């Protein structure tokens, strides 16, 4: 997500997410469709992100089975997103893994990526 206008978050989506959503429950697919209707950015996979995802694999932060989780992070990192939002507690929203992803990011001269759950970034109504 990007924070462009006084705290307003703009979703940054990717083709990797779009492919994953195809097999998701209908309520998840509907939420994704809602995001596509809003103002958003859509990222396509590119060589720079693939290389960063490869480095995550090389460092054994994720196993090859979960390569796409690393690609999510690499796409958000290379796009300079402000925050990656995920419910994936095993491979993405995981304290130790966030530290390891960001160590690679910083070694490659990218900024650190904030990673949070949707609940953490949702606006609270007063």
Describe the structure.
With 126 residues, this protein is α/β, with parallel strands linked by helices. The protein has a single domain (2-118), classed as Rossmann fold (3-Layer(aba) Sandwich). Helix content is 48%, strand content 15%. It has a two-stranded antiparallel sheet with strand order 1-2. It has a two-stranded parallel ribbon with strand order 3-4. The protein has a two-stranded parallel ribbon with strand order 5-6. Strand 1 and strand 2 form a beta hairpin. It is globular and about 35 Å long.
Task: Tell me briefly what this model is.
By secondary structure, the protein is of the alpha/beta class.
Distance between the termini: 23 Å
How many helix segments? Answer: 6
How much strand?
15-25%
Helix content: 40-55%
If classified by CATH, what would the architecture be? 3-Layer(aba) Sandwich
Main sheet strand line-up: 1-2
Shape: globular
Structural class comes to alpha/beta
CATH-defined topology: Rossmann fold
